[in-house]
Amino acid sequence: MNVAEIKLDLFRRIDNLKEKELKNIYGKLLELMEHSKYSLSRAENNAIDEALESSKYGKYKTTEDV
């Protein structure tokens, strides 16, 4: 399925829901959409910054090394 087909399928399924089902799905869908955005923790950001800084000075391993 391409993106347009997925959207149309979802629309049709949502359109056929009863009011109670729609309200239940709506809340779940919003929650899922809000939680699907991953944010890096402070530790993860620090680790990335350290790795980038090390790479500036040639302190890294190639894929072959690993």
Structure commentary:
The structure is a single chain. The protein has 66 residues and is mostly helical. Helix content is 68%, strand content 0%. The chain has one domain (3-56). It is elongated. 0% of the residues are buried. The mean pLDDT is 87.
What brief labels describe this structure?
66 residues, mainly alpha, 3 helices, 68% helix
Quick overview:
With 66 residues, the chain is mainly alpha-helical. It has 3 helices and no strands. It has one domain (3-56).
List strands and helices in order, with pairings.
Layout: H1 3-15, H2 19-35, H3 42-56
Largest sheet, strands/sense/barrel: none
Overall tally of structural domains: 1
Strand content: under 5%
Helix-strand makeup class: mainly alpha
